[in-house]
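Bug #77: duplicate submission created two jobs. Keeping one. Sequence:
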Amino acid sequence: MESAPSSSPALTNAEFVVRDSTEADVTAIQLIYAHYVLNALATFEEAPPPVEELIARRKKVLDLSLPYLVADAGGEILGYCYASAYHARPAYRHTIEDSVYVANGLGGRGVGAALLGELIARCEAGPWRQMIAIIGDSGNAASIALHRRFGFQPTGTLRSVGFKFGRWVDTPILQRALDPLKP
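Kept job's structure:
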């Protein structure tokens, strides 16, 4: 999900903040996401959804009291992340899935790590016990490394479950306990 590493130095916390997203951020979010839809395997969508659709998706996340965050550098959105329900059935209510997207060209500069770190912290404060990362493409080394850095462990790979850009694509699945002491 995070874009390929950049040769530029890491950005510092003074250069951007991770904050709750607002509806006004969704236009920038749509541009970031559209890049991945059109050029990468991080998502299996094939056509970029319009801003209105992403506003509705954001609302669905917030309606579940889950975080939807952005990395903001003085009004420029560098990336975004959110947690969503892993599955809709009630028995899965304590398990969530994360999504992290960084603006094209900013991979490897600390934006994805700042986003995922804050997302995990916020989710640990809630009632959830497990976070799942479903990564588009076994070759997405940047996203796999980012998640491993935050304690996610591989649990398996679904082979050839997506078809995009004329080829079959795997989805590695990683999992992390949010707070093993929760009842």
